[in-house]
Q: What sequence folds into this?
C-alpha cells in the first residue's frame, strides 16, 4: 500500500514538473489516486497557471473541486473531472469565462450543476452516468455557444425528455426511456 502511494506521489510530481519546465498548456493528473488537488501544487505552478488551458483529473478519488482550484486556473478552456466522486460544483465555476468543454461523467451529481449555464463560452457538457433527474432545459436553450450536452445513463424525468427536444438547438444525448411495467 505504501509503495503504491509513493508511486502515485512520484507520478504527480513528475507530471507537474513536466508541465512547469515545458511551460505546457495542459496538466494531466489522471489516474493519480488524488483525493484532493494537492495544495503544494499552487505554489509550484504559480508562474504557469495563466497558461494552463486543459486540466485532466479523471479517474481519481476527488469528492469536490475547491474554489481555490477554480480561481487559480481561471484561464481553463477544458476541464476533465470524469470518474470521480464529485456531487456539486462551487459557485466559483462561474469564473471560468473561457471554459469550452467540461467532462463530469461518471461522478455523483444528483442535480444538474446550474452554474454551468452562466458560462457563455461553454460548448460541451458531459454529465453521462450520474444520477440527474431534472435539467434546466430553458437555461441550457439560451446558451449561445452550447453544441452538445451528454446526459446518457441518467434517470431523467419524463418531463425533461418531452420538453427538451423542441426547445434546444444543440445535440442532447440521452439514453432511451425505460418502459415501466
A:
Amino acid at each position: 500500500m505504501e509503495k503504491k502511494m509513493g508511486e502515485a506521489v512520484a507520478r504527480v510530481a513528475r507530471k507537474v514538473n513536466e508541465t512547469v519546465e515545458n511551460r505546457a498548456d495542459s496538466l494531466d493528473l489522471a489516474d493519480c489516486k488524488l483525493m484532493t488537488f494537492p495544495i503544494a501544487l499552487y505554489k509550484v505552478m504559480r508562474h504557469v497557471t495563466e497558461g494552463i488551458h486543459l486540466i485532466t483529473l479523471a479517474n481519481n478519488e476527488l469528492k469536490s473541486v475547491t474554489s481555490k482550484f477554480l480561481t487559480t486556473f481561471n484561464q481553463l478552456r477544458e476541464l476533465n473531472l470524469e470518474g470521480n466522486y464529485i456531487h456539486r460544483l462551487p459557485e466559483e465555476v462561474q469564473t471560468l469565462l473561457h471554459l469550452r468543454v467540461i467532462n463530469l461523467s461518471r461522478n455523483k451529481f444528483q442535480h444538474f450543476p446550474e452554474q454551468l449555464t452562466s458560462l457563455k463560452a461553454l460548448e460541451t457538457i458531459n454529465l453521462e452516468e450520474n444520477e440527474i433527474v431534472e435539467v434546466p432545459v430553458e437555461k441550457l436553450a439560451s446558451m449561445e455557444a452550447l453544441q452538445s450536452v451528454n446526459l446518457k445513463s441518467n434517470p431523467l424525468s419524463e418531463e425533461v425528455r418531452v420538453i427538451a427536444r423542441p426547445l434546444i438547438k444543440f445535440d442532447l444525448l440521452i439514453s432511451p426511456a425505460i418502459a415501466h411495467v
Summary: The chain has a mean pLDDT of 92. The beta strands are 26-28, 54-56, 78-80, 101-103, 124-126, 148-150, 171-173.
